[in-house]
Amino acid sequence: MSDYDTNDSMLELYLFESTTLLEQLDEILLQSEHDKILSQDNINEIFRTMHTIKGSSAMMSFNIIAEVSHKLEDLFFIVRDRGGVDEDYFEVLFDLVLRVSDFLKTEVDKIQQGIELSDEKPPLVDEILNLIAAMKGGPGAAAPAGKPEGKSAPTAESAPAHDVSAELLDGESMFRLHVYFTEDCQMENIRAFMLVSKLQTLGEVLSIIPDDLEGNPDVADIIKERGFFCKFVTMLSRDEVEANAKSTLSVDTVAFVDKMPGEDSGAGAAAPEPAEPPAAEQSAAAIHTEPAAVQAEPAPAPQSAPPAAPKPADKPAEGDQNAHKPTKQNLINVDLNKLDVLMNLVGELVITESMVSGSPDLTGLELENFNKAARQLRKLTDEIQDTVMSVRMMPVATTFQKMRRIVRDMSKQLDKDVELTLEGETTEVDKTIIDAIGDPLMHLVRNAMDHAIESKADRAKTPKPTVGSIKLSAQNVGGDILIAVSDDGKGLDAEYILGKARDRGLLIKSESEYTEKEIFNLLMLPGFSTKEQVTEFSGRGVGMDVVKKNIEKIGGTVTIESVKGQGTTIYFKIPLTLAIIASMEIEAGGNTYAIPIANIRESFKATESQLLSDPDGNEMIMIRGAAYPIIRLHRIFSVDGCIESVVDGILLLVDSGDRLACILADSLLGKHQVVVKPLPNYLAWYDVKSSGIAGCTILGDGSISLILDIQRILTQY
What we know:
Alpha-Beta Plaits, Helix Hairpins, single chain, alpha+beta, 19 helices, five-stranded mixed β-sheet
């Protein structure tokens, strides 16, 4: 286990990089398995991913991760050298690599949780070695055509060796870089490793000197004294290569030289060279390379040397020479906690701006210049607020893509042919919302696979396609996001669900009074399950109730629609963000309350003819042929001085998923953007939230307004 603590910046960088690479690895594997082909580009990408994880893990002393990554790197070196994977090993390879990915994710999670890693070699290592041996001994194990004689494919114990030359494609150039790092930057070998990793994303690194950046403790001193050399092939121009190299952390100078130390003058002569460097630069490079030139020949590349990705056999079509030219992205990784602080500060700014422009000291004064400046200030604060909120926004693609793995694994285990379709992956939601919807989506996809999609035999009896379909979609609907999970399975049987609920004593009224929508909502009661037998995936009565609770925690609602024999669709309606919401301010008994606009359907004045009572004596109001209960806030919160007559007050028709009611208020104060503040901790002793208060906000005049939890109020009252 590494000595780095969980607050170490290098550890944070390692965890972020490893997590990102493993997610990308899964995407590549699942897409390649779906396409029934493992392209050369994807083979190279998997190879580079394993090499990066191996190198960074070894640097951090996470030896078990480094060992497993190293073995998988060896496996893909063989796959790459053979030009692909034989059909006989295709399925076995994908199953093994996905299990390796799961193992590495588990180990990375352990590091995040501060759990010490085991030093025991996992069985996966032997499985990888066995597959390597089988592939070497299987059909086509001979070296691919064009491979230089004397270079055999590496064994599991050896490392991929670097090529010393490469056949260049049209538009490519070969550069030999001589790099010095800034004085006293320390860990020059790690700086060189970072430079090589960056160059690998821009082209192909053929060789480096010194070549053992991880294993030799003296490498840092050698680089500090003699500099670092790198042979590099890319589609970029000379200036772009220099700019990218110099933008790497701690790089001081970058020179272009004619040859690597120890390289014969004829080496790589067949490859066209870039334009000659200036004479002064050549002289400087010659001086720098003299000390390193004492080596008779470059040492063989060790395990940790950056791999050289093979070149495609075919040249790109005319006009496509720049098709693979990388595009530089202006991205930066920021700690989410810093964004939370920034969001809180923007919230305070919004509140302060409202307090200044709405100050009672300004009442009755004609301040034209002040009002003009106040309007400009409000415009700027609104723009800052929108910008900060957009920074926190993330596409749902990452969460959606994770469902591919669940569908893939369950398809194999349940022997069902199912295809997952994703729509609206670019839809952006606040980071906190993204984190909250992961588990609910997983539950729904697993339920669709286990409950909804028929077995192969049952599906063959229907006119449906033999391959089942599950679709995840996301779209903006006003100020909310609508996420849907649809399947073309057997749908829900309302009578069967009602019978199950009756047997479990879950019905609270006569069966004939239940609408189809209410019957479907019974599925979200705690402990309810239609599965007869407990399996690995379901039948324990845990699922839809958890989905509902998790979605309601973030202010969302769950709706179920289904047609028997055709399929089921479950909708999540969730807010874009939880930090700043649009609300309607109302007054009741001199107190101010905020109701989220998302929960309000309409507001209106009632007439005597609309009022009625149900058989239990509860107040109701008839609106366009439908009766809704009336909820009086002053009774819930024990407030005096409220308007008692429904006709004299104002009603707001509010909804929370499948429930609707009318809330009686004294008056409407207007629509505002409010910053949601949590309730003080000491109020937890009084269980304030259970009474229907979700939080609070500070108004422009400095007073406090309570934010109503409409879902809880409609459920309880």
